[in-house]
Amino acid sequence: MKQQHANSYYAASANLQLDYPQLAGDHQADICVVGAGITGATTALELAEKGYKVILLEGERVAWGASGRSGGQAIFGWAAEQSTLEKMMGKDDAKNMWDLSVESLAVTKQNIAKYNIDCDWQDGQSHVAIKPRHVKELKAWQAQLSDDYGYQGLQYWEQDQLKEQLASPRYLGALFDPNSGHLHPLNYTLGLVKAAELAGVSVYEASKVTKIEHGTKVTLSTAQGKVTCSHVVLACNAYMEGLNSKLESRVMPVGTYICATKPLGEERIRSLIKNNMAVCDINFVLDYYRCSADHRMLFGGRVSYSGVQPRDLAKTMKQRMDWVFPQLANEPVEFAWGGNVGITINRAPHFGKLAPNVYFAQGFSGHGIAATGLAGKLMAESIMATSERFDIFDKIPHMPFPGGRLLRTPALVMAMTYYRLRDLL
After folding, report:
1. Are 239 and 36 in contact (CB under 8 A)?
2. What is the DSSP secondary structure assignment for residue 55, as one 8-state letter?
3. In this structure, are strands 155-158 and 173-182 parallel, antiparallel, or unpaired?
4. How far is C-alpha 369 from the geometric centre of its chain's CA atoms?
5. Residue 163, number of CB atoms within 10 A of its CB
6. Residue 411: CA count within 13 A, CB half-sphere
């Protein structure tokens, strides 16, 4: 039995109801892609359009993971700050990484337009300051990105200017980017999968890969079938468990959660966020929110590093939402959901190859909406022609989470206590 999508506002407002068979029997392909989220769907689509025979395998349902239930914010940059990337890989390659992050936004918008995907794209996103030190950080960030990286569109808003757009008493300022934005992530991912199918990709659901046999030809086994192919792309992210211990050890699945109000009406929702931008603060454990196309407030955050969902999720999320928007105190939550995303220790993306013909991309660390599409494009580009741009990611050092599969979660919970306390200062 296939697991259903999370009981979310996204699932309730999905434009497509896709259904694919389980893999059965022996199959041949040029490329097999494992994981039908944005990364896998984009890779498969890019390759199929170039004439390759592609099979796309999904262990649950297409768009079942973070691609179909995330906050939907497409943001410039990476979860690792540019200054961190500069220390890890040098300024020139950090600049290349920045340029790729900007390209990822363009890829997202191009996909929406090219494949006519109805996913409620909206321009505009802000990082907001809760504390005086956040104000300094945002202003320094704007200066760095403008002066060192040539990114000229950012606008810093002082508190009074921010209040013209955002009706929350909690913030001291904001860094606004008109080039970033937000979308309906499930509809976007379903649109990519459908486009891949129309391009000739064979899609299978409830087909979890249990074994990979490496070689000049690679064989992937599922419960009912096998695929033999020349190249493999692993796009599993937080759901790599048991497939490859090296990759699994370098990504930690952590829970993040979202709630949605009932539709509030256009006038009411614009009184909260006038310009319909997406918003997130810059605490380590952050809040993020935006308005839906049907005028709901979608509010996310409350990351769980233990893997345990809050006991009363709707109540927990509403308390946080009301802290940001006291105006919503009397508005009930209609949906509350969550699930895992994949993070790395250094918060930088983990892309690379397990073998010359086995690619992977994981560890988007909360920046997946745009970066996943870029990952798919780069892996397809590497398989078809040149690896030059994809190979930049090899320069980022990635360490495994300490403690192994049994102890790494409690170890991370202990480490995150420091950052939670720092958010309070």
Report:
1. no
2. E
3. antiparallel
4. 4
5. 15
6. 11
